[in-house]
C-alpha cells in the first residue's frame, strides 16, 4: 500500500535523478493531472497553462469521478 511519505519520496527529483528508469515507469503509471480556472471551471488544461478567457493561471483540480 502506498503511503503519503512513500509517494513524496518516489515523486521527488532526487529519486528520479538517482533511479531514472524507475522514475519514468512510475510517471507513466501516474494518473493524468488536470488544471482548471478558478473563475471558469469548464476550462481545463495542463500545468502552467492560463485561462484563455481571463488569463488566470490554472489550478490543480480534484479528480473527476
Q: How would you sum up this structure in a few lines?
A:
The protein has helices at 4-10, 13-18, 20-29; strands spanning 35-36, 44-45, 59-60. It is α+β, with helices and mostly antiparallel strands and 65 residues long.
Number of domains: 2
Query: Can you write the helix and strand succession as a string?
Result: HHHEEE
Radius of gyration: 15 Å
Which structural class should the secondary elements be placed in? alpha+beta
pLDDT < 50 stretches: none
Instruction: Kindly report how far apart the N and C termini lie.
Output: 21 Å
Average residue pLDDT? 78
Task: Summarize the main sheet.
Answer: 3 strands, antiparallel
Number of strands: 3
Q: Order of strands across the widest beta sheet? A: 2-1-3
**What percentage of amino acids are in beta strands?**
5-15%
Give the overall shape.
elongated
Number of helices: 3
Helical content, roughly? Answer: 25-40%
Protein name: Heavy metal binding domain-containing protein
Domain Heavy metal binding: 35-58
Pfam family, one: HMBD
InterPro entries: HMBD (IPR045800)
